[in-house]
Amino acid sequence: MSARVQQAWQRARRRRWWSSALIGLPLAVAATALALRVAGFNPAAVVLLLALLATKGIATWRARRLDRRWLVRQLDRHAVAQDSADLLFAAPDTLNPLQRRQRQHVATALQSAPPDLRPRWPARALWPAWIGALLVIALALGWPRSRDTAIAPGPGPVANGTQAPPPQLQSTRLQIRAPAYTAQPVRVQAVLDAKVAQGSQLQWALRFSAPPTSAALQFHDGQRLPLQRHGDTWTTQSTASRPRLYRVVTTPALHDNRLYRLDVVPDRAPGVRVIAPDRSLVLGAPGQRQWALQFEASDDYGVAATAELKVTLAQGSGENITFREQRIPLTGSGPATQRRFARTLDLAALGAAPGNDVIAQLQVRDNRAPIAQTGQSTSVILRLPSTEQIQTADLEGMVKKTLPAYFRSQRQIIIDAEALIRLRGQLPPGEFVRRADAIGVDQRILRLRYGQFLGEESEGAAKPPPTSDALPTSDAPATQDQEHDHDTADAAGHAQAGHDDHDHSGATAGGPPVFGSATDVLSEYGHTHDHAEAATLLDPQTRATLKAALDQMWSSEGELRQGRPDAALPYAYKALAFIKQVQQAERIYLARVGPELPPIDESRRLGGDRTDLGNRTLPLQAVPAPDPAIVAVWQQLADTDGAPDLDAVSGWLRANETRLSDPLSLAAAIEALRMAPECSECRTTLRAQLWRALLRPPPQVSRRTAPDRMGQTWLDALENVR
What we know:
40% of the residues lie in helices and 17% in strands. It is built from 19 helices and 19 strands. The chain has helices at residues 3-38, 41-64, 68-76, 97-112, 123-142, 347-350, 387-402, 410-422, 429-451, 480-495, 518-525, 532-535, 540-561, 565-583, 628-638, 646-655, 663-675, 680-693, 709-721, and strands at residues 169-177, 187-189, 194-197, 201-208, 214-219, 224-226, 228-230, 233-239, 244-251, 259-265, 271-276, 281-283, 290-298, 306-315, 322-331, 338-346, 357-365, 374-376, 380-383. Strand 14 and strand 15 form a beta hairpin.
């Protein structure tokens, strides 16, 4: 497509855009004039903006409708195009030689004599639009300013004997200057409802359709702020200290007596959060020399760049505890509304020694003027271990290295055996047998642990040497206990309770028992755990189940010690099943401890004698209704004919304003009903607001439900027993 055809196309689009805009522009002005006449300046400005945006959008849309297809149709109407204008927009590779020749011919013709594609001006639409708009503007703006309706200075009748219309708010302007410490810019708005920071300077500027004789801002708490006249503008200013409702009152009264809301947002105190350490009590490591601290302080308007870290050192123990306090200044980093403070304390410089406590707390200030608000973090404590605690911790560490072997469960033994079976083909025979023997040792230790509940003794204690007739022959196989007694003596001894580690042979280490020796008497007569009835708290059925589990563990142990884990698994599974039954036992028998209760007097049962019984009826006391003033008004609002006492509710609201979550909504409902006493919707709204403001009574004991016929018959029968 040639450049001259492209220019003709663009001129056509511009002509279409301007023709559409010239039709929409007078309509937008006419709509603005009507809005100015009916609603005032602020709504008229909004209408003008929306109308201009709509006019521009419609004009752009109509101009874009002149697309390529429209251009092809317009070019084909001229003889120079020869109905071949579509060839100008086709790709050269898709054309045959004849079409390329025709395309070149058409392009040359259009380049030498481009057609005029601009549409005609829509005169039939332009003239009515402009004439109608001028008539609407004249009626909207010129009618109120005719000479026969000139407004007199006062509210009385004008020269021709007609009453002057009430004044209306023509324009409003509210300037909000927040306190300097908030760093908020000066804000100017056209609406009188506002949400401002506490302490903001407010300045009102109002214009009326007719100048009143006096004007003021009337607040719902009774305060009245007069407006000063400066030409056609009425101004006043005030400081926002608390949330209030207000309305503009004039003499004569305004046509629209609307209520406006002024919300005041108080400045919150800064909050401090501890980032490091992640817990309030930190147990120090032996030899620790430093302690890293990190805090984050946030505020709605900004935190001061400097803060103070209070460090307290507690020394001593018991009644001889001394405290020493130090204050360290810190400088924060990051934005003003969310600063971070970090410090690494040198414990040696603070004088902290083992057994001392180091307590840290950060105190910050915000930028509020003239009096700043402070906030502090929770206290974090570093407890340095004493020398005795370090030694005890080392001993516990040694014990913990040995304890895990005691807690091998039957399920873990099964898991280990199954894992060993899967590795049979990958391990040498000797290694396979060694691992199976280790699992058998674990099975033995577990069997000994459960055997304690049946009064069994430790199998790992020292045994007397065997006699000659008890020694096995060289060709006889050794028993399990003889073969592995040395390997498992220590483990079995640790697994048993403390009193199971000694010998019960009845002889002392030095020889036969001595008559009168306290040690020998205790050895022979002081133990009762070898008696099953005295050494267990289990019922007979549970004891039998546990004994069966021990038998299965014994068989499993024998197979594992011989290197046959596959043969040991059935016994291990049965032992696990018996152990689960023991764990799910219904009851156990506990030893009797403490005082014995007196026996029950069977002769008094079902006798109906209640002479020494107390009254079990719970008295139900009536809870006084909270806030009787608003309860009475709430009940009066249900009666459409009665007049509620709104002054009583207003007085109660002033006394309880800080307790309510939204006092302005309740005040607005009161004022709305005061202005329109016959408004049923206003009554409903105020009643709902009062219901939310009512204090809920504490929960009381609920009455017992009435018994049915059968239950009442049973209660009557009990009464007749007496």
